[in-house]
Structures are given as structure tokens and as C-alpha cells.
Amino acid sequence: MTAITVPTIGAPAPAAHRLRWVFADTLTVTWRNLLAYTRIPEALFFSTLQPIMFVLLFRYVFGGAIPIPGNVPYVDYMIPGIFVQTVMFGAVSTSVGLAEDLHKGLIERFRALPMARSAVLAGRTSADLVRNVFVVLIMTAVAYAVGFRIGDGAPAYILGALILLAFAYSMSWGFAAIGLAAPNSETAQVMAFPILMPLTFASTAFVPIQSMPGWLQAFARHQPVSVVVDGARSLMVGGFYHSASSVWYSLLWIGGLLVALVPLGVWRYRKTS
Amino acid sequence: MSNSSLAVEAHDLVKVFPRGHVRALDGVSLAVEEGTILGLLGPNGAGKTTAVRILSTILSPDAGSASILGHDVVKEAETVRRIIGLAGQYAAVDENLTGRENIRMVGKLSHMSGKESRGRANELLDAFGLTDAGDRVLKTYSGGMRRRLDLAAALVARPPVLFLDEPTTGLDPQSRQDLWGVIEGLVAGGTTVLLTTQYLEEADRLARDIVVVDHGRVIADGTPAELKANLGTSVVSITVGGDEAMVQKAATLVASLSDHPPLIDHHVVELTVENGPKVGADVLRTLDAAQIPIGGLALREPSLDDVFLNLTGHKSEAETDEERAARTAKGAKRRASQAETDGRDAA
Questions:
Q1: Is the pLDDT of residue B329 over 60?
Q2: Which member of B81, B106, B186 has the closest CB to residue A1?
Q3: ipTM score of the complex?
């Protein structure tokens, strides 16, 4: 620790370098977040258990009592819905994780490092995306065990799953903004729920909207969760539920959410001090 | 325009937190010469942490300017981040990672190669006596180990300027001594350090210059020797038996024994003086002659609280709302520091 060597002082890096650093720094933060998940095995276990229980609950408890249109078993109908519900509830961990980083002072350290500003949020949302991929794989296996069958072939099923993952990713940015606005991690969780609940349940995820009162149908039909579930259902279940337009509509929503929520998260991050 | 031998320069820094309408910094100027340690002293909420956060580019000042090795902290923030290291109570390490992983993460985010950050992790773990604990998750670390790792993480990119925000708050005496040794070693190697602390003893041991802040303003600066000369070397603490009038009478009687006015807290009268034992004996004689009952008499070294009492005439009560909200642990730490001061004097 003798002579001070400061080879790095000088002009800021050129644009090409910057882009490389954004990517590299995002990877590093993603790696750190994923590593942190594995360090709390209990959290990993129970957050895996929960979606499995939901699959079983809707398959065996509620499923029989919910009439759905089209000649498909309820287990097929519910699969896209239960996926979207799981990734939406999972997105709460984006809020909680960021609130924790903020209040424990980790973000303070990040801010004093020469890393890309955007990497903190991008790394968090990317880690959640990786986690969601695992969740979808596990749930697909469980769904298969309780009678779900792919309707339109594996490629369509995978495309449907990708739509759900893209939607979850866009929502992560919104939940990131919530986490940064929350005074602590406990509150972050409570703050996320009023947004989660109506979006997830006043939707086509578990029930056909025809059973809802008229005023609610208008909301339920066009809100993003319904639209994305319809799009995913078109691909994953097919048949009666096939609808190319709903696939395009869901892509439109996902694009719109990204355009709105990414800047919201970034703005919130810059504002937080 | 700037003096080349100054590593850190701040001019009239102002920071207002709108939520609490608090002027956390109200025109703070300071300068740290290259290769020296500046101790920034002050009670909780004085603005120490806010100053460090501005100098380390985390916060922008509302007015005033600051530069690190000639680079403006606002206009050249990115350059500044490459030449500073930040450690302290709030710049945390990741609890869910191991010591080695933490250092490697900081290395990568400082844009070192994977090989370089791995090598640096080995070096630093070794230098800080953490090699055995390097692959353990931080949750299992003691307070002292965590602080050492925190400091190690700040040194990954070999920054020539180091900010240490209350680096030893809450540490046991041995860990504090160890950390002091490390900091001295760094400065011997040419590093410039700006250190905030609540401990006069720490500033005394480490710092070449001291700046004392309170309510966001600089209220004193100078070398430790200069500040102490103004303070006196010991505090005579007299517990008076009897009612309030008796305490007042005692304070009036002993006032002439010190250059500073006596401070009264309930039944305790305190005098800051140069020659504690002699004044103590004088106090006993004076009060005995006046037939004032004495419940107890103690000598102790002046604490930072005494500095503030003498410099400002008030106890440091105002923690800004902003800082209070974000940093709930401070009160406990402050009490701990007081307990430690007391413990040291008893020993």
C-alpha cells in the first residue's frame, strides 16, 4: 500500500466503454442478488412452496366450482393465470429487496463507486427475471402432475411463458420504484399489495369476467393482467382461447409498461438520497 | 485556482433537507492536505455525515462547491468516484455475501478485471486478518470484523483519498486500536483521509487537523493540541448534597477555580480545568469551608460533549429529522459511546 497509483484519473470513458460497463455492472449486481437468494435457503424453499400450493388449491379446491367457457378442463384454463399471479406476487420481493439495500446502506456504497448508475435497478430486475424463469419451470412441472396438458405444442407454450416473463419484468421496474419510495422493507411489502390484489384478481386470471358486475368488467377486460393472461392463454392453451389479437394486445401493454415504468424506477432511484 | 497540495477542498457547502426544513450544512468550508488526516468532529445531526456524502458524490450540495484532487464533486462526479474510497457506518457491506465476495463485487464495480479483483480480495483479507473468515457469510462476523471488511472494501481500487464515516463507532477498545493502526499505515503510505468521529480521543490520536461542526456550521478548527488547550485537560465533577439552592451556591463558590463557567446538571456541578487533582482538592476545601455537603467527586478526561458544552454552551440535542428518519440506530450508538467514555474513565 505504498505509492499512490492513480492510473484512472482523467477524462470520463467514451460512450462505447460506458455501454460495456452498464452491461458488466448489471451482470455483477445480478450475480450478487442471485447469490443472496441462495444464502437464505428458507426463503428459497417457502417462496417455491407457495406457488405449488396455489396450483393445488385452484386445481382441487376452487377449480371445480368455477364454470369456464370452451371445452377445456379448468386446470388448463388456470395455468396462465396462476403463473401471472405468482410472478406478480414474486415482484414484491423486488420492492422489499431494494428497500433493504437502501436502508442498510448498500446503495450508499454503490453510489460512491464508479459503476453505472442504472446497474442497481437493472441488476435487481434481471435477478428477479432469472428467479421467475425457475418459478415457471417448477410450476409447469407441478401443473403437469395435476393434469395440465399443453394445448398448441411446446413452441407456442414457451412463447406464452415468455410473454408472462416479459410482463413480470416490466412490472419489476414499477415495484422497484415502490421499494425505493418505501420508508422500510416491511412497509414496501404493504405498499405493493393494494396494487397487486385488484390487478391480479379482478382479471381473467382465474375466472371469466362475465360473472363480474358490468362496471368491473370494463376494468377487468382491459387492465394489463387480463390482457397478458389472455395473450398467454391463447398460446399456452389454444383451441377455444386462441386469439392472435390478444397476443398483440398483450405485447402492446408490455411495451407500454416498460416505457412508463423503467423511467419511473430510474427517476425514483435518482431522487432517493 | 486551487492549491495543488490540497486533496480535499470544500467551500461554503450548504445542504437543506426540505422535509424537515433543516439546514444540515450551513456554509461549511474545510481543506485536507494530501497525505494527512482531517478529523471532522461533531455531535449527531451536526452535519458530519452530510458533508461526507457530498464529498463522496452521493448528495449534491444546494450551494457551495467541493473538489477532490482538483476534480469537482458535482461536475466531475464520475472521476471523483474513481479516486475515493468510502467506508463507515452507513456505507454498508452485503450481509448475504461472504467477505471475499463483497470485496470482489466492489472490485468488479470499480471496473477491475476478475483476476485483479480476486487477487485484491486475497491481499486485503490477509492484510485485515480476515483470511480465515473470508469465505464465511457476513452475518457471522463480529462488529469489529465487519468494520475491517468495510474498510477493506473501500480500499479495493487503491483510492488516494479515503472518507471514513465514524469508522470505530460501537467497536470495542481492542478493535478500535487495530483499526487506528490500519488507518495510520494507510496515511504513512500517502493516502489522504477525512475521518468523522464523535470521539475526541480518536481525533487526537489520528488527525493532524480537526474541524468541529455543530448545527451545520464550523464552530472551531485547529490542531488537536490547539483545541485541547482551549478545553482544559480534565473535568472535575462534583455531586452536591442538598437542594437546588445548595447546588447553585456550590457552583458559584467553585466558579473561580476554572476559566470556563461551571456547568450544572441536576445535582452535579462540572468544571473543565487544566490541573484536575489540584482543583479537586481546592473544591473539597472550598465546599467544606462553606459547609456544603459533597455526595461525590470525580475526575475524568474531557469528552466531546465537554467540547460542545464549552464551545456552544448547549448540549447537542438537535438531530435533523432527515437523519433521524434514515438512521435510527444513532441514538443507541451515542449512548454506547457515552458508556464507553465512562468505562474508560473508571478504568
A1: no
A2: B186
A3: 0.83
